[in-house]
Amino acid sequence: MFRPAEKALLALTAHHCCYITLESSARVSNSDNLFPSQSWIPKIIKKRVCTTFVEDSLSNGVLCQCGGVRETHCSIATGDFFGAAIVSQWDSSQHSSEYPTDAFGELEFAGAGRRHSHFLRLSCDTPPHIMYSLMTAHWGVPSPNLVVSVVGGREKVKPWVREVLRQGLVRAAQSTGAWIVTGGLREGVGRCVGEAVRDHAAAASSLSQKKVIAVGVAPWGLVHNRQCLINSEGSFPARYYVQNTSHDSCCLDSNYQAFLLVDDGSVGQRGGETAFRAKMEDYISHQRTGSGSIDVPVLCMLISGDAAMLERVDLSLKKATPWLVLNGSGPAADLICELLDALSAGPMSPPSPQPEAEGSEKTSAELRDRARERVRRHFPAKADLEKLVDRVSALSIYKNRDLITVFHGEQESSDDFDTVLLKALVRASKRVSSDASEYTEELKLAVAWNRVDIAKSELFNGDIQWKYEDLEDSMTDALINDKPQFIRLFNENGLNILDYLTYRHLEVLYRSLSDSSLAFTLLQRLLTERQGLAICSPKEVSRLLWDILGDVCEPFYYSILGLDQSASTRRALKVLLQGDCSYREQSCLYPWASLFIWAVLQNRSEMAVYFWEMAGESVHSALAGCKILRELSKLESETETKLSMKELAQKFENLALDVFSECYQSSESRSFTLLIRQSPVWGKATCLQMATSADARHFFSHDGVQSLLSQIWWGDMKRSTKVWKLVLSFFLPPLIYTNLISFRLVSVAKFKGDVEEYAALRDNLKSAPSSNPKRPFVLLRWREFWFAPVTSFLGNVLMYFLFLILFAYILLLDFKPPPPHGPSTLEFVLYFWVFTMVCEEIRQTFFRGNTTLYQRMKLYIEDMWNKCDITAISLFALGMCCRMFPWSYEFGRAVLAVDYMVFTLRLIHIFAIHKQLGPKIIIVEKMMKDIFFFLFFLAVWLLAYGVANQALLYSYDPRPGWIFRRVFYRPYLHIFGQIPIHEMDGGIECTNNATLVEAGAEPCMSTDHNWLVIILLVIFLLVTNILLVNLLIAMFSHTFSKVQEHSDNYWKFQRYNLIVEYHSRPCLAPPFILISHLHLIIKRHIRKIPSTKIKHFVLEIHGREASRLNTWEAIQKENILFAQNKREREKDSERLKRTSTTSVMVLSLSLSLSLSLSPSLSHSQLEYCSSALSWMTEALSQSNLVKTTRPPPALRGKVAYSLPYDIGYMYDLFLWKVASYLSSHGI
Description:
It is a multi-pass membrane protein. By secondary structure, the protein is mainly alpha-helical. It contains 52 helices and twelve strands. Strands 8-3-4-9-7-6-5-10-11-12 form a ten-stranded mixed beta sheet, sandwiched between helices. It has a two-stranded antiparallel ribbon with strand order 1-2. Helix 16 (417-430) packs antiparallel against helix 17 (440-449). The radius of gyration is 44 Å and the shape is elongated. The two termini are 60 Å apart.
């Protein structure tokens, strides 16, 4: 049930919700505009006023025990209606009453020059949920992800504590989005926190400043100049003057964003806010964070403190609030740390068996004795010692020790303060239960802070049995927030990825894409076809991958939607709109590959590499990641993101190359199968197809890939066969039955099924059908020769040369007039020859693969040499048609002459297979781009000089043709030295008669500006002949040096495309290729006999064979990863860093134990420790890796030292050597 005040707040909050957004976004100085939205605060928030004057015996009746003077109390408070003698002790709850608050609004610090702070005077009995709602909903303070409540004394803070607050606390608050709660006054700890927040605000961005919220909770009666805050209608703002800023005072600190001024009716007294602050912390600890995934963690931090602070600690410990105590900061903190050390060192139970009650009494007595001794040392001036001892004993420190974490600030670095905070919270939660479900909140906190080291040491150390349900939400958070180390940790500790990654989870992951990512933008474009539905389904992801990967593989996720490859977008949309979402509860068929695609689309390097390690088909997956990233980099507009995508793409190509290299060294035959097998994960694409699409030139340059290509290129013939033997056999086919050409021997055992993997691969690569292995020798040898791609290539080259010779002969010697006198017989033969070429181009376009017609045409057009073929055939058709008519005969002849040039340039592609010419052709192609840039600059100078030259030399010339020649043609010839000096001097016949000039006569040149024409000519020749030409040469040189280094890789990559082209071509070349076309039509479309040559590049394997191949590939990948990790571990810096860190930790622990328990150690144990330290120091001293910058530490004490001093000296010497090495290596 709600209290009346709570009900009123809810109602008024709903009534004034329209003002909240306005006030949080803009501050208006006119109070009249803000009163309607603030007038409800006094109705909800109250203040306390002392209503009973209880005389303070030490003030001679002037002061009340509340701290106020008699004159400030009303007549009712000072009247003795009930007898003043009865009341001996003033109590806030009994002797004060609540009234509407009269101090609230915004605070402006005079001279501070910063934004206004919120403030509110409130009763100490105000419900904390009202204040939390007021701060977050009305004041616009963001909800915290962490609350650190800093308490301490008023004395001067030590320098190292200031450093911890500045470098540790504020940085941890900034990284987590925390509230830092202090007293908010310019004294002690509160002032140090304010200065730390101020320094952070001066150096951080505006976004980072909003993540650090400093809240001051101070007693109202203690605040200096509080009268200027009082205004029953609210102050917007209240101008607050801070006095004596160089020394500590009870003024409000200007570096805080909000002040809660707790009023218990007292004046000038401390502690009135303690109870409210503890209740506020407890309430916030049960609220959800800003993301809503976990409860807000609350941690109290004790710095120094007086005796009254022990009661504050006791109050929070009873509410199970964890504490972080800074050892060495002051009395109260040091007392608690000493008690913890004493309780850890001494026995807590009697050694002999006793009754439980008697043992408990004895233990309590021991605790009191130890506490009394330490309290007397830290608080010698306290009169009520026994009361303070009871308070310390009531802390039950040993019982609640898991709630207390000690930070040794003088020994530990402030850089690890966020680690200390998280460990304190995790340790506090571990005391509740050993059930994993009790630690999910802390696990989510560790994920939010990205502290996998703490999760490993505190949550995944074997004490907790984690289940899938406990890790599911944290796994989602780790995926969305890019925490790959946590994903690895979860996968190793009970999370089954097959159970986790359903299609529903996959949709959640894609809906969590960042708004600024390229993948999000691309998916949003696809969602426009969903008729307003904003839920990203696998259909959109599949379309996105189809746009990126192209037709190299089949669409993803179509099978779960019940669609096939040819399904239209309208049909897929209909399935989704019908609400058929049963697929969402299904597990992803390939979960690691799906996560890999998701990570690659977001350009998450570390996460993508981990998913690649976990996914199968390592070579294929790496090449697919390379392809996706390179396509995304073409669409990315931000330069930095584009560069990172290219780097990650190159990394995946290198990974594919490394794994395949390991596979090739392990087994050549299996590595060949790996290249050509169809991948069920990646849409039945092969590694070679994916590498081609990804432009993975380095991968193609590997010897294993080239070995497979050479094997396919030569077919069943040996690779050592000479070219002249092939040419001779081509013209004399009977020679193939002799020993002129050597063929590879085919093992007979391959038909028995399982002898060797290489024989099995040869069986798959054989062009003969397996149903008829025993062909006649004549037919078998005939097929082995003519069906080899190299034979097809040789035949096409020879016949193409004959075609060019025939074409040239007709153009030069046998080009007859139009009909009826022509064309000649040879010209008709040429027409038929070109017709067979057209038939082959049609076959390449429409009769290849199982893709759609549009995809086939698109794939055909994308090839540059296919465009060249289309141009040549189109020009030939145009020239052939034009030469048939007398009026266009000459034009047709000119077109055919130009077409001959195009056909001749086609030879460049043919010779790309040559090992020496191929790289040079690539260099020429790259240089052609440089020429276009050169021509652009040249055209600018030609235009500038040509127009000026024409205007100066000819005053009037209306002939457009001659103007064009003089503006562009003649200046171009000037570059090569053809300068008509006699024309400039006017030595030719000409006329100035405009009529004659218009009739075609040569106009006279003006000689008035010859000097200017000469100057322009000199400048033009200087720029073009020297500057631009040398620029072109420099560009050629740069291109040559850049491409020459990688020209071999380029050539090997193009060689694959050429081999694929001639592998798919019929064995006969034009014009005899028409016979092969008829044979293919009969065989494929009439007799329905499938092709066996396709197995050379595409191999489909299933079942046990596929499983064995995947396992073998995974083993090779593990070998590569193991070798890489070993190389990283073997680095000197990493190895010595781990060794030094481990040694320092072990020695620190052993030394602290040995010194604290030295009376119980034997002499032999101490001697062993001393010897071990001496051995370690000597080993490091003799190492060449350590170069010291200062002498070793001197031996402390006299020469005759005791053994504990020996240990200390050797320990210091060891740490000196380690520190010297670490500093010299920048570790």
